[in-house]
């Protein structure tokens, strides 16, 4: 019988995955940066945001693609690298590094794919905008475009265990499989990814599907000497954007201000389990 993991155990396992990821990147000379809530947690809490268990990283596109090319090396370990480019049942436009010893239930996809606890790995691309106004418009348009495609594809299943969600999950699964939605969505992912991954070096960088629609300066991530920052997260050192203050301010505004107590809750509604061995 699978054993359900408590929040403390989930954080410990996710941190172990992040440490493995860091060591793998160091061994293969890959650049990464703590990102989004993980970067915020490192600066404000020196670790996880207390009510969250999420870990996010950004990788410059060339490093992101190289990591994907090393999938077989990673998948021969305790971990598994998932991408829509190496698994057609994986339906997110970014990669996950998953802990094979765990399972997250229920499945988040109508494809039925089950994966383990994971860290999210997002590509960092140059924005093709000729100026800030145009670049910000591209941020919004790319996010809105993909969100619409994802909603229409019925790929995401409701999270949480209750009768209403179980019915919704079944209906979406039937629509997804009958409508053969997967191939169309994966084609859209490739189309928008190819649109941005070959953009020449520019002043602005972004993640094309960020819910924050954040637009960052390339110089905020590294200097002309390719230096970046290093921050402590749960007692371990990890790479971070050179000007992480500018990155966090663009993403969250006054990021050191704690949210109201009623908003200090986890957005995750999944259950995580340790697999039987």
Please explain how this structure is put together.
The model has no long low-confidence stretch (mean pLDDT 91). This protein has 277 residues and is an alpha+beta fold. 39% of the residues lie in helices and 18% in strands. The protein has one domain. The chain is globular, with a radius of gyration of 19 Å. The chain is built from 8 helices and 12 strands. α5 (132-153) runs antiparallel to α7. Strands 2, 3, 4, 5, 7, 8 and 9 form a 7-stranded mixed sheet that branches. Strands 1-12-6 form a 3-stranded antiparallel sheet, with no helix packed on it. Strands 10-11 form a two-stranded antiparallel sheet. The protein has helices at residues 7-27, 36-44, 61-69, 71-75, 132-153, 163-178, 181-197, 244-252; strands at residues 3-4, 33-34, 56-60, 79-82, 95-99, 102-105, 118-126, 204-206, 216-217, 229-233, 236-240, 271-274. The N and C termini lie close together (10 Å).
């Amino acid at each position: 019988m699978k054993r359900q993991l408590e929040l403390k155990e989930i954080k410990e396992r996710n941190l172990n995955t992040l440490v493995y990821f860091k060591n793998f990147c160091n061994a293969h000379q890959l650049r990464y940066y703590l990102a989004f809530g993980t970067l915020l947690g490192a600066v404000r809490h020196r670790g996880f945001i207390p009510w969250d268990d999420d870990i996010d990283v950004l990788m410059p596109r060339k490093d992101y693609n190289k990591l994907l090319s090393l999938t077989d090396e990673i998948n021969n370990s305790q971990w598994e690298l998932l991408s829509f480019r190496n698994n057609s049942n994986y339906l997110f436009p970014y990669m996950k590094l998953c802990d094979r010893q765990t399972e997250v239930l229920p499945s988040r996809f109508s494809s039925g794919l089950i994966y383990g606890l994971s860290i999210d790995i997002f590509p960092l691309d140059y924005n093709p905008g000729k100026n800030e106004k145009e670049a910000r418009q591209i941020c919004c348009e790319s996010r809105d475009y993909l969100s619409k495609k994802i909603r229409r594809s019925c790929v995401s299943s409701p999270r949480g265990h209750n009768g209403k969600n179980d019915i919704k999950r079944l209906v979406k699964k039937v629509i997804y499989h009958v409508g053969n939605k997967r191939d169309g969505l994966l084609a859209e992912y490739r189309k928008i990814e190819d649109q941005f991954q070959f953009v020449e070096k520019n002043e602005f960088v972004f993640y094309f599907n960020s819910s924050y629609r954040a637009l960052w300066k390339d110089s905020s991530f590294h200097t002309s000497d390719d230096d970046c920052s290093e921050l402590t997260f749960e007692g371990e050192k990890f790479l971070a954007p050179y000007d992480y203050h500018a990155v966090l301010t663009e993403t969250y505004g006054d990021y050191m201000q704690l949210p109201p107590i009623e908003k200090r809750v986890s957005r995750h509604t999944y259950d995580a389990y340790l697999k039987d061995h």
